[in-house]
Amino acid sequence: MLSILANRTYRHLFSAQIIALIGTGLATVALGLLAFELAGENAGVVLGTALAIKMIAYVGVAPIAAAFADRVPRRSMLVALDLVRGGVAVFLPFVTEIWQVYLLIFLLQSASAGFTPTFQATIPDVLPDEREYTRALSLSRLAYDLESVVSPLLAAALLTVISFNSLFAGTVIGFFVSALLVLSVQLPSPQPSQPRGIYDRTTRGIRIYLKTPRLRGLLAINLAAAAAGAMIIVNTVVLVQGQFGLTQQDTALALTAFGGGSMLAALALPSLLDRISERPVMLGAAAFASGVMIVGAMVSNFPMLLILWVLAGAAYSAALTPSGRLLRRSAHPEDRPAVFAAQFALSHACWLLTYPLVGWLGATFGMGLAFLAMAAIGTAGAGAALRVWPKSDPDVVTHIHDDLDADDPHIADAEKTQRGFRHAHAYVIDADHAAWPTR
């Protein structure tokens, strides 16, 4: 897996991702401490609102940012957004009012909503070989999971010698170093063959996404994964410290179990996907995650919870890590930023639904019903994916054009039939293919 780091461009991009993630992790810890300093016992309300603002920024800003991705060289766009994120983080230590927290979080996450999909869409152009790209996806998943473990530990160590406000300096440094690493390499910037209007550029990714059967299936899998993930992220502390009467350290251990399961799956996926297509892996993982939620309704002790969280982490990673392969196959290189932005926005819309729902259900009706509700949502998502994502899902699709002139270059090699011009090629939604073939 690590052999792909021999590619200098990818190595620098991966390093930029890791450094920015650690900086973001330090900011997360510091933000929690800042919220407590400003709001005391109402810190949970502040953090919950900040989380909602983050999701709103992700859902609303990502498609708009993608509209400009083909107007600006990708390297320039990524560097500029890193500098914006670093510049916003500079002001976080000087916050004195809660509304200032909300404003800065919106600006910071809006920049991330532009940065992350563009960054993700660049990797398949840097690593065109599918086997190498699959390993890059697993490395990225490992980086996210390791960050969730390393950042809190690093923050705890730093807090023994500095104040929490100083942690924001690590965030600033992380974004600026990330910008330097991106600036140190040349990045491909595929351009559309013809100019597009602002509406077309803003909605293009969503339209391609929702017209592609495998991506509609991915959206349903996103919902199933968000149902399980929201239960774990929102209610782990309630289960461990409220229901079992254990400590903060035990809560951290439970979340580490979830991350550990995710890392195990990420390590196993490259070799598994060399032999099996994405569909059975992702559908099976989504269904398994829902099964874990059903068993979770009967959880009665901490060791059982740890086992379930490891299994849930593995299912979550297996359901979502291969998604980059589907997005890569489903768009031309110049459309990938828009399609990755659509995945970014739509997947976070699933989280925006499940986060508050699972918290409200757990607080109002108890953990058992919250588990079962998330299991129901997950099962519905897995079932919808099974229905809308065809079992036969080849890249090359034979299809007929009845809407093009006979001298159109696109059908120069096509066979003329009574119904139109028939040919086969790797099929994606674009100007010549407005809908998916039904026959």
From TrEMBL:
Residue intervals passing through the bilayer: 12-36, 42-69, 217-240, 252-269, 281-300, 306-327, 339-358, 364-386
SUPFAM superfamilies: MFS general substrate transporter
Boundaries of every Major facilitator superfamily (MFS) profile domain copy: 1-393
UniProt KW keywords: Cell membrane, Membrane, Transmembrane, Transmembrane helix
Pfam families with a match to the protein in the record: MFS_1
Membrane-protein topology: Multi-pass membrane protein
Coiled-coil regions, chain positions: none
Protein name as annotated: Putative NreB protein
Organism field: Pelagibacterium halotolerans (strain DSM 22347 / JCM 15775 / CGMCC 1.7692 / B2)
